[in-house]
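Figure 2 data, in text form.
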Amino acid sequence: MKSPKPVLSLIQREILVGGMLGDCSIYRAKVTHNARLYVQQGAVHSEYLNHLYSVFQNLCSSGPKLYVSLDKRSNTTYKALRFNTHSLPCFNYYREVFYPEGIKIVPANIKELLTARGLAYWAMDNGYKDRGNFRFATESFSRDDVLLLLAVLKENFSLDCSLNTVKSTQYRIYVKTNSMVQFRALVSPYFLPSMLYKLQ
């Protein structure tokens, strides 16, 4: 008798959604194959990456590995930690909604997927402090995707945010000053100690 395929716990699903709005990726070698989660962070954020590994460890065969690369233009060595899960059916849905055409987007149903925990992991993964306020680095998403995220931040969490144009086709989300107390209250319970500097 075959053992049942692993399923994602509620916490894993919430963290996965937040990570996918940031730098996490889900790959599928072929349409007929199951998908797998890839997580990478600079070595400076090793505590955060190791924490993410602990969240998904039951779905992995090995722990994080260190990768070293050289940027020849600047002669700078870059160190990153990375891990990936097994290819599993439980990741297929997230591959389909985040990559309907093969390129990562914001899913149309992100309002139903994004929780306060997911918001916190998105903030840890891809947000940064900006003079006492907070920005999400959403440059990889289209303007319509970022506008959808702005609407969800308002509807789900009552956060007033604005769209900032970085370049003609790149946009960031800025948490307005009047929403910073609410934002910190929402995400700080889930923040790792090494990431709290982003909220100060």
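Caption note: The longest strand covers residues 76-84.
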